[in-house]
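G., the chain you wanted modeled:
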Amino acid sequence: MRVDAFRDAAEFKSDMDRELRAFKDSEKVPSQERIYVAGEPEYEKTKYHREHGVPVHVKVWDGLRKLANELGIPFDLAR
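Predicted structure as tokens:
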């Protein structure tokens, strides 16, 4: 969606920044260390997996290795 079709984009960004800060500065639930906004947990998980790799269940890993062997494709991925 093009925000600038409805209002000035810089004003919208400024308003959103203010709203996000208000959310983040809100009182936290006692058992939580921080407040997340939409998409933030997914962003952090993606960033972690890019740095450390994506976990693959052992049965999936073994299936991929078997398939690669059947197709004659080298399976030299790091585990």
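The longest helix spans residues 9-24.

Shout if anything looks off.
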